[in-house]
Write a structure and sequence with these properties.
With about 210 residues, this protein is an alpha/beta fold. The chain has one domain. Helices cover about 30% and strands about 30% of the residues. It has 6 helices and 13 strands. Strands 1, 8, 9, 10, 11, 12 and 13 form a 7-stranded mixed beta sheet that branches. Residues about 15-25 have low confidence and may be disordered.
């Protein structure tokens, strides 16, 4: 019964999010956290996007909103079908709240409604100038144009972080595109420890 009530609460919250036409603006504290997470991912994941790197890749200057969806409930006697393949900027709420690190839930059920509220985030978030000055920036539009005219490309795209209820944990997706059959995606879990964001765990979500 408790599980059914939880699903109903999440569904109602999700519907409210979809029907709300006003985008949530980030406060100064959240903006600071987002930019710090960008720096952490670049440095701890050793992304070769810094301007002083002779073999530097590009990094999209705008982060993309991560869409959190509620999987459709399987009807009685309906055959079990495999889940859809992972895709950039999309993840189910079930995957988020069931993921464990060292046998401990990363996000809790209490975080569920807060996580879904991230669907109200703006579609894009531009990283701050202080970070932008140190890395080779591009836009998704520029890289798509390169692809269409047959030029080589190699760039990273990252989602806007989503946060736990207490803003101490975060999750992002990162993708690298480097050609028609070259690229990969990562799921990255972070935690704020002693005032600093740290990558706790990451895993490959797709590869081509």
């Amino acid at each position: 019964m408790g599980k059914i009530l939880l699903i109903l609460l999440i569904s109602l919250s999700f519907t409210k999010c979809k029907n709300n036409s006003n985008e949530t603006e980030f406060n100064s504290s959240k903006i600071k956290d987002i930019n710090e997470i960008v720096s952490t991912v670049i440095l701890e994941d050793s992304l070769r996007v810094l301007k002083n790197d002779n073999e530097s890749k590009m990094f999209c200057e705008e982060l993309t909103k991560l869409n959190i969806y509620i999987p459709e409930k399987r009807k009685e006697n309906e055959p079990i079908t495999p889940p859809p393949p992972p895709s950039f900027n999309s993840i189910s709420i079930e995957n988020l709240i069931s993921y464990k690190i060292e046998s401990q839930m990363f996000f809790t059920i209490k975080d569920s409604l807060g996580l879904l509220q991230n669907n109200l985030n703006p579609e894009k978030f531009k990283i701050e100038k202080k970070i932008a000055e140190k890395i080779n920036l591009t836009t998704k539009e520029k890289e798509i144009n390169k692809k269409e005219i047959g030029q080589s490309y190699n760039f990273y795209e990252m989602t806007i972080p989503i946060f736990s209820l207490n803003n101490r944990k975060a999750y992002v997706q990162l993708s690298n595109y480097c050609g028609h059959l070259c690229g990969h995606g990562e799921a990255i879990y972070l935690e704020k420890i002693n005032g600093k964001w740290k990558i706790i765990q990451k895993y490959r979500t797709w590869i081509s």
